[in-house]
Structures are given as structure tokens and as C-alpha cells.
Amino acid sequence: MAESRENWGSKIGLILAMAGNAVGLGNFWRFPYVAASNGGGAFMIPYFFALIVIGIPIMLVEWSIGRYGGKHGHGTLGPMMYLQAKKAMKPKKAIIVGALCGMIAFGVTILVNSYYNHIIGWSLGFAVSSLTGGYTGDPTGFFANYIQDPKNLVFWVLALIFLAVAVMKGIQKGIESWAKIMMPVLYVFGIILGVRALTLGSPVDPDWSSLAGLNFIWNPDFSQLSWQSAIAAAGQIFFTLSLGMGIIHNYASYLQPDEDIITASVATISLNEFAEVILGGTAVIPIAYAFLGPEGIKGSIGLAFMALPNVFSTMTGGGIFGAMWFFLLFFAGITSAIAMYNYLVALLEEDAGIERKKGAWIVFIGYLIVGAPIALESILTKSANLVYFTEVDNWIGNYILIVLGLIEIIVIGWCVRDSALEEMNRGGLWKVPKWFFRLFHQFLTPVTIITFLVFFTRDYWLAGNFKIVPSYIAEIPEFAIWVNLGRVVVFGVLLIGFIQSYKSIRSKYRAEIDANKELAK
Ligand code: PFF
């Protein structure tokens, strides 16, 4: 049964939903610590380079693949990429390309959300604690205790129920209506926090002011430039713009066939970058810098959940600002996670004929299962190491997105070529010029991604990420079991994803794939 395809209700709803998809925990939780631990200002140089050379061209590609796929009744990436690849190669090769892309999107939407939903739950829990003064006693230790206490999983389950109910209502009444409420509130909270950050002065050390924090992020120290920061920047661009995940395509599949995707892509990117660079950059980094100084700011997962509660507990009016910060994270997380949730519900609708309401509950149970190891690790080992989370994120949240981006740009830029440009430009108020397509889609973007991927792989190798006991847990080798559990799950989900996508494409296009086999005989 084909999915009964809805459309977006209004232009503003579409833009806010897409912005909601892109603006997420990546902007406020991930960006500050990735930027701070990769050289601050020096990180911003490859960051803007990657935004222009990778972010903009791939965003355009994903919108157009999605709109085209939607026109043919598809909301998932396998069949969408099959349709593209088929323009340039035999169906029996195209099905492999489609199945590989579908596999990655399947893996990402299941596994990124397996930990992401937990961060949304933590945000809600921490928002409540800000208002009730929960973390005032020991703000830094609060996080570790929080994730070891099974009672707190209630916030995770609440977040999942929220997502299920919202997705069940469909595109216009669910996703679009929530984006219209949550996105404006998120921007208002971000602006208030940004203003508060800049008026902080130097509460702890005269050398650490919020303005010095701005300097740290905006004044590059060129000696800090490295391949490692460039790779981190490219990874951040993929993550923050939701590229290489299948969820931009899925939202674009609910467009009308001639709707302007150029303006919409530019709007999505602009809203995302405003949230990330201006709000994430000025709200979080200067606050953290003013209280923690240049070294303290280089936290990891902890920056948002350990360092900032510490700050809020000493700041005047910290309870309110803390609540605002964690609600901001919560809204940002929900409006993104809803996109992955919807992807899987669309997949069940399209490939198994399961109606939306039932699908939403199946996905709910699925997320409880795949999210369980994250919770279990902290509860059973009484630690806050989160190595299962780290391992899954290393491969699925960082690495594989770039692989999908590469396949897409090669298919569009090198295989489909000029007709892909025509498709992209259809209905556009502005058009992507031919020279831009030649320079970016056909040359700079693929070449840059290939280069990054080579260095990325080398870096992971050198960092000891391929070892049975990866180097990042060298001091806690007994945690190798959680790392390897993560690897088994990643591998297993990808394998299922490949088979699922292959079958999905084959069941829809059996006639032409088989006809082609006949010819080949
Ligand atoms: N662009 C999103 C972000 O920055 O958080 C990426 C994302 C992650 C979307 C996880 C959806 C999701 F469930």
C-alpha cells in the first residue's frame, strides 16, 4: 500500500518545520563543545569552508531528491535514491545504490535517535531541576547521579510519548503545528540567554569575561588549525544541517512537485546558522567562558549538562536562566527527533502498509528497545562514562553521514549531471547557475568530501578507534564490552537496513529490475 501522502499546510509552516528539523541539540549541545575543543576561532575557518563547499550544495541535492521521490510516492531514501541512480545506470546497479543509501538512513534514524532521545529526556529533567533547585548542592556531580538513577528515565519516556503523539497527528497537525510553537519560543529563549551572556562581566576571574569568550570563538589562533579541526568542522556541518540522515529528503517529500526548493534550502540554512553560530556561539560559549575560563570550556558531552548547571547555580536568577536553557534544548531536540521518528513511521506505512497511528506506537517501542543499552550502561555500571553512546555516535553520528553525503553527490554530480540541475531549479524563484553546479556539485564538493573521508578514516585509525579496546577507553578496559555491544548493534541495524531497503525497492520496481535481468541473459 502506498503511503497516503500529505503536504505541508503553509510556506511558513514548512520553513519552520525544516528549521526545526535542522536546529537541534547539534546546535546548542554539540556545537559549543566541538568548537571549543577544536581550537575555538581556528575551528570556525574550516567550519565556514565546509558550510559553503559541503553544506549548501548537499542541502540543495537532498531537497531535490526528496521532492522528486515524494512525487513518486516515496518518503524513504532507498527508493528515492534508486530513482536517481536509475537515470544514469541499469536498474540492477541502481538498486544497490538505493539499498546502500536506504541502509544508512535506516541506521541513522534508529541509532542517532537511540541516544538523542535520552539527551532530550535529560534536558526536560534538568529544566525541572532548574526550577526546583535540584542541582544547587553539587552541580557538577549532579549529571553523573542523574543518569545513574532509573527514576529519571521517566523524562525520557515522556519525551518519547510526546513524539509518538505528535507524529501520529501527521504532517500538518502534528509536525507543522508543533514547529510553529516551539521554534519561535526557542529563538526568543536563545536571544534572552545571549543578551544575558554578554552582560555577565567577569564574575570569577578578571581575565575571563564573556567578551573574552567571544574573542575565543571569533579571533582565530592560526596555530590551532589542523586536519583534526577541519574534520570535526565537516562532521559538524553534516550533523547540524541534518545532512546524510534521510530526514531532509523525507520532509521534502511532502512538498508539492513544483514548490521552490532553492529559497527554502537557503532559508533552512540561514535559520540553522543563526541558531548555531549566533545563539549557540554567543549564549553558550561566553557564559561558559566567563565562569570556567579557556581550559574549563573544553568539556565534551558534559559542557551542556555539567558545566552550565554549575554556572546557573552561582548566577543571579540562575534558576530561571537554567530552565530557559534546558527548555531551549528540549524544544530544539523535540523538533529534530520528530523528523527521525516520522521517517520510521513513513517507512512502516510505505513498506508494511501499517497506518500512521499504529506505526507511531511501533516506533515508540522500537526506541525504548534501542535506547535501553544507554540507560543500562549508566545504571548497571554506576558510572557516567557513556561509552556505548560514544561508540554509536562515533560511527553513526559522525562517520556514516559523510559516506551518505558522498554517495549522493557522486550520483547527482557525476552520474545524473545536468538533468539533476534542471530538477533542482524547477519552480525556483532563484536558480542555481550552471557554473555553480559545475564548480561545487561536480568538483569541489565531492573532492572535499573524499579528502575529508580519507583523513577522517586515518584519524580514527590513529586515534585507536578500530581496536577491540579503543584507545579512548584505555583507562577503563572493562568497558570494552559496552563498546563492542555498540558495534554489534550498529552492524546489525545496518544489515537489517540494507535488506529492508533492497526489498522495498524491489517490491516497488520488480518489473523493470527483472526485465533488465532478462535482457542481460
Ligand atoms: N540537525 C540536527 C541537530 O543539529 O541536532 C540533527 C538531528 C539529530 C536531527 C537527531 C534529528 C535527530 F533525531
Structural class: mainly alpha
Low-confidence stretches: none
Bound ligand species:
4-fluoro-L-phenylalanine
Helix and strand succession?
HHHHHHHHHHHHHHHHHHH
For the secondary structure, the number of strands is: 0
Number of helical regions: 19
CATH level-3 fold name: Amino acid/polyamine transporter I
How far apart the termini lie comes to 32 Å
Oligomeric status: single chain
Q: How helical, in percent, are the residues?
A: over 70%
Query: Can you identify the CATH superfamily?
Result: Amino acid/polyamine transporter I
Tell me the major beta sheet. Answer: none
What general form does the structure show?
A: globular
CATH class: Mainly Alpha
Mean pLDDT, to the nearest integer, reads 94
Task: Quote the beta fraction.
Answer: under 5%
- The CATH architecture can be named as Up-down Bundle
C-alpha-based Rg, rounded? 22 Å
